[in-house]
Amino acid sequence: MSNLGKPITQRQLRVGEMVKQALGMIFIKEEAKLPNLETKEITVTEVRMSPDLKTARIYVLPLGGKNADETVEKLKEFSFVIRKVLSKKIMVKFMPKLFFVNDDS
């Protein structure tokens, strides 16, 4: 796995794991109030950070894989709410922009 020929750094992996764990807890505790979406049923499988740590590609999978595309669309639509809650959980210089992707693996 590489970004434009460069290997993923330890810092990218560490920040990605921190974001993944924080998002998992936010979804489990339903701290981000999203209309018509049960966040308890969402699994964050992976978070890939850009080299500058300003964007995060978040791979999610709804429980049982049901309505995966609809869930991802809702998460994209309300990513600003999730980002606001995430900013209270982790301390980073720049809060990354969150891009949600359906995990097809």
Radius of gyration: 13 Å
Helix content: 25-40%
Share in β-strands: 15-25%
N-end to C-end Cα span: 15 Å
Could you say which overall geometry the principal axes of the C-alpha atoms support? Answer: globular
Description:
The chain is an alpha+beta fold. Helix content is 36%, strand content 25%. Strands 3-4-5 form a three-stranded mixed β-sheet. The longest helix has 19 residues, at 10-28. It is globular. The two termini are 15 Å apart. The mean pLDDT is 90.
Short description:
This protein is of the alpha+beta class. 36% of the residues lie in helices and 25% in strands.
Task: Please tag this protein with its features.
alpha+beta, globular, three-stranded mixed sheet, single chain, 5 strands, two-stranded antiparallel sheet, 105 residues
Topology:
Blueprint: E1 2-3, E2 6-7, H1 10-28, E3 42-49, E4 55-62, H2 68-77, H3 79-87, E5 97-102
